[in-house]
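Record type: ASSEMBLY
Status: queued
Input:
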Amino acid sequence: MSLDPKIAARLKRNADGLVPAIAQQYDTGEVLMLAWMNDEALHRTLTTGRATYWSRSRQEFWVKGDTSGHVQHVKAVALDCDGDTILVKVDQEGAACHTGDRTCFDADQLEIALG
Amino acid sequence: MSLDPKIAARLKRNADGLVPAIAQQYDTGEVLMLAWMNDEALHRTLTTGRATYWSRSRQEFWVKGDTSGHVQHVKAVALDCDGDTILVKVDQEGAACHTGDRTCFDADQLEIALG
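Status: finished
Output:
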């Protein structure tokens, strides 16, 4: 089985066949990380309940938590209005970030300096 | 003035010189939309307090709300752990989505069908 053709028809992929996927903690609303999915990663995410990405660096599927234990249990998945972004609401076990931070956005806050 | 070189040095851009930027409502945590920034759009976002993107379709800067009135007032900006995604926390006036929906992810919920 592969991705539902009705969903596949709505996806707008980049030149590498990928769509950015935002992972968000479903209850607190924290934005955890951004990763990338191809059609098969989205299919696996929808049918296994485990957030599954395409690793651009390793060029392989990446079931979040398989190595780290920091599993993302999928609660809801939505496409945006033009089909070029995926929002995955998950229940994140432990840290989402490989650095050990809860989210990938915790460490590098930029200063806003209104002119 | 252009983007602080210390920030520019941490940014990882795609082949078009762009970085995905996630816009999130700062108080409710809603993920509003994903758009794209180049260095100058990020600089303007940090220094004007108005979320500013690079429109890939129009190939021009896009100050969110200039046409629609649906301004994004910038509250906080962060880079992710590897500098290839930006999280912009904003106070969104009205609808974030051009369809009139509050967020770009409201209309197309995908069914999770665990095997």
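Annotation: Chain A has two helices and seven strands.
Annotation: Residues 5-92 of chain A form a domain with the Ubiquitin-like (UB roll) fold (CATH 3.10.20.810).
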